[in-house]
Amino acid sequence: MSGSVGELPPGLTASEQITREELQLATRNHGMPLEALRYPVTPVGLHYLLIHYDIPAVEEASWRLRVDGAVRHPLTLTLDDLRARPVVTRPVTMECAGNGRARLAPRAISQPWLLEAVGTAEWSGTPLWPLLEEAGIADAAVELVFAGLDRGVEGGVEQRYARSLPLTEARREEVLLAWGVNGQPLPPQHGFPLRLLVPGWYGMTSVKWLARITAVTDPFDGYQQVKAYRYRHDPDEPGEPVSRIVPRSLLVPPGIPDFLTRQRMLEPGPCLLEGRAWSGWGPIVAVEVSVDGGRTFQAAEVADPPAPYAWQAWSFRWDSQTPGDYELCCRATDATGRKQPTEPQWNLGGYADNDLHRVKVTVAPS
Question: Is there a domain that residue 3 lies in?
Fold first, then answer.
């Protein structure tokens, strides 16, 4: 690495420096290396991870899930009680709402994701809604509040991490109370012993270390619901809530990388470009690839989804015979017509920035 201690790397301005606070977050959380896009199911150790506060210490023997609030039959359940219920395993793509945040200018000072805050795992658990039917949700209930055991201070508010979900979403058969991932119990960092899984929604909805579900008759006004995770362009506006995942495609970086810049080096000749694409609004119906920085696009081949809310493989054959520098790009369109934009979509929290994935490649003989 060139330059003396304290010098900025070439091309980096002072305003683009990562802060010490962001570095602390980045060392606690990790993203999925983009070469891991080759796996249909992401190995647990490569799946992205975001922990808001601390990983709580939880003993399975003393842990209980409580279902209360506006219900006729409050429930208190052990993990064995839940495991005795019908079990479902399904692959689901999960993405952090802040994925892409670090590429925005100005950027929000938070976990500095580039593109790697995503993964697809096979989650095992029991469907949520039958359990709530047994509890007897009152007619006056409008939302369910899911509270974890993780505690901290955010925005000056001491809190347990908690999010709510409308009853219409909670009724979806694919929403799970999950205790397993990729055939093993949830590891501590992924929410042991139990987490919520809401396919199609950004990851902040799938509350980890779940301990309580409360039916409420008024909309939940907790910090993670009304302050965080809202699309705003001004701090004083209420904003719109972040919910479903917008379409995105990513490219497995071809060739080999330069250590520091991650610029790719590729031999001349035929090259199969591959990647994954997903959306929380419906299946991906098209992926387009550009080799000239987004000036022109060509259609890629897109595989069928392996399951609802699981990413889809795509491929494109590129004959990179001419040496030189290239910028590869990809963009996806889902079944609702939503398409990745060509430019970043700025907002105050840096949420859902899904503009083009760009990969710089130098084609040259070894």
Answer: no
Distance CA 183, CA 41 (A): 12
* Residue 197 shares a structural domain with residue 310: no
Q: Tell me, what DSSP letter sits at residue 283?
A: -
Helix (H) or strand (E) holding 26: helix 20-28
Q: In the chain, how long is the greatest CA-to-CA distance?
A: 71
Give me the domain span that covers residue 345: 248-363
Q: What is the pLDDT of residues 194-237, one digit of tens each?
A: 999 999 999 999 999 999 999 999 999 999 999 999 999 999 99
Phi/psi at 346 (nearest 5 deg)?
-75, 140
C-alpha distances (whole Å) from 116 to each of 34, 95, 268, 354 are: 6, 9, 28, 12
**Same domain assignment for residues 189 and 47:** yes
Dump pLDDT digits (tens) for 35-61: 999 999 999 999 999 999 999 999 999
Gap between the Cα atoms of 173 and 129, Å rounded = 7
**Cis? peptide before 74, omega within 30° of 0:** no
Residue burial 75-112, b: 16+ Cβ < 10 Å; e: rest = bebebeebeeeeeeebbbbbbbbbbbbbbbeebbebbb
Q: Six-digit token pair at 79?
A: 């993990």
Number of neighbouring beta carbons within 10 Å of residue 19: 10
Cα–Cα dist 150/160, whole Å: 6
